[in-house]
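tool_call: predict_structure(chain=1)
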Amino acid sequence: MLNYIGPGMDGGVLSVVFGILLSFFMAIFAIVWYPFKRFLKKFKKKTVSQQEDEKVA
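tool_result:
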């Protein structure tokens, strides 16, 4: 026997499912993006310092 749970329950279930999926993908993105961003910052800093050294010499 199926019980009627109301029209609002569908929206709640969809919101929870999308929220869980979104948080999972955001966590994966953060794990990949922030170390890559740090690497790019270090690489750009090294490139700028090398250019400054060439100007001084």
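agent: The CA atoms of residues 37 and 43 lie 10 Å apart. Proceeding to next step.
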